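It would be a great kindness if you could assist me with a short task in structural biology. Thank you for your consideration; the sequence and its tokens are set out here.
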Amino acid sequence: MDLCQINERVCKGCELCVKFCPQHALEMSEGRNSAGFHPAYLAHPDLCTGCALCAEMCPEAGIVVYRRQKARASQTQTG
């Protein structure tokens, strides 16, 4: 699963998410959504760090960012 999921049905092509992505992981699609806009998409999932700036900038609240949980180091004490 990608860290960043964009709901292309609600995207109005404002490009704010693309402009504010510090990793340059997002791009605008050549195709159009059902409303006639060029939606953003996660073009480079390997670059996405899950910072959620794209979701914060989206005026349509059309982006959800998932964060991976780090594995917890189990501390075993003997003795």
User: Anything to note?
Assistant: Residues 4-65 form a domain with the Alpha-Beta Plaits fold (CATH 3.30.70.20). The longest strand covers residues 4-6. The chain has one domain: 4-65.
